[in-house]
Amino acid sequence: MTDVRETVSVDESSETALLHTLFHSDQGGHEQVVLCQDRASGLKAVIAIHSTALGPALGGTRFHAYAGEPDPEAAAVRDALNLARGMSYKNAMAGLDHGGGKAVIIGDPEKIKTEALLRAYGRFVASLGGRYVTACDVGTYVQDMDVVARECRWTTGRSPEQGGAGDSSVLTAYGVFQGMRASARHLWGTPSLGGRTVGVAGVGKVGHHLVEHLLQDGARVVVTDVREESVRRVRDAHPEVGVAADTAALIRTEGLDIYAPCALGGALDDATVPVLTARAVCGAANNQLDHPGVEKDLADRGILYAPDYVVNSGGVIQVADELHGFDFARAKAKAAKIFDTTVDIFERAAADGVPPAAAADRIAQQRMAVAAAG
């Protein structure tokens, strides 16, 4: 079902493309898509609910301009659909009683983000009556969720002062680190990253926390980021960290053991995989596989892929716990189980003769199917 509260402005050809994306894309099966507009505040947003089989859809709010896209609205819809579907799988693999949803606010957050816009967005989320629970994502922060929560009680990732769990990037990074430990165990027989070289692409909200875990475990770390200030923050704290000129240079680094994409999606594509020097990929970014078939290309090259939606689920575990009265120790203990889940996926993949991404999909689909069947 597609629910259009007030559609964003699109021309006829774009509208046709949007409808095709909504009902016929490979990302499909979504229960509900809401296209939102509030002219007074300048809000244009997309809310996508992929599945509520396991419970209310839970997923963050991305605030992104889609600069350079020929049709930003269409790009936002595609992104929301893909991200919402990923959240269904992520929540299923994290053992949460939540389905998958995602929202995208269209625009440059540094230019158009205001309290009025966030509150208007909150009213749209509230109008769904709890079918979708929102949180932070790229371009949105704890303080933004505090504002959204003034209009919508189905908001997580709020500040501790407002009864929330705070910055979810803390446990996102911790979960990715657990996925790396599982990858190391599978490849080298030990869960330690000591002496291994890890390349981290993107050291923003999640990446810089991940660097801390890796250094504490004795790893050598090389980083890159499009924002110089992000790299500078890491280097100021840890001068021993190496810096690559850009992601293209990072993935070609000799002696790289693990590559950690921690920025936007599509990091693994037809150009990247053939030149990747790492033995494993394990990172925080969502939707790392640029298209179907990349997981097989990785496997054919002997590169172990830790499914992104499994290892980066620490953040959603954290914000989901907030709905029950946040307890950090309880949430961290659940995020620690990402290690065991990742180990299980690698073992099932080997037993079934499929890439780890396919094994993870099968496990998640089975859980959702059982729940849907009642």
UniProtKB/TrEMBL annotation:
InterPro entries: Aminoacid_DH-like_N_sf, Glu/Leu/Phe/Val/Trp_DH, Glu/Leu/Phe/Val/Trp_DH_C, Glu/Leu/Phe/Val/Trp_DH_dimer, Glu/Leu/Phe/Val_DH_AS, Glu/Phe/Leu/Val/Trp_DH_bac/arc, NAD(P)-bd_dom_sf. It catalyses: L-valine + NAD(+) + H2O = 3-methyl-2-oxobutanoate + NH4(+) + NADH + H(+). It holds the Pfam family ELFV_dehydrog. Pathway: Amino-acid degradation; L-valine degradation. The active site is at K102 (proton donor/acceptor). One of its GO terms (biological process) is L-valine catabolic process. One of its GO terms (cellular component) is cytoplasm. One of its GO terms (molecular function) is nucleotide binding. It is an enzyme of class 1 (oxidoreductase). Its main location: cytoplasm. It is found in: Cytoplasm. Its EC number is 1.4.1.23. Residues 166-374 form the Glutamate/phenylalanine/leucine/valine/L-tryptophan dehydrogenase C-terminal domain. Homodimer. Belongs to the Glu/Leu/Phe/Val dehydrogenases family. This is Valine dehydrogenase.
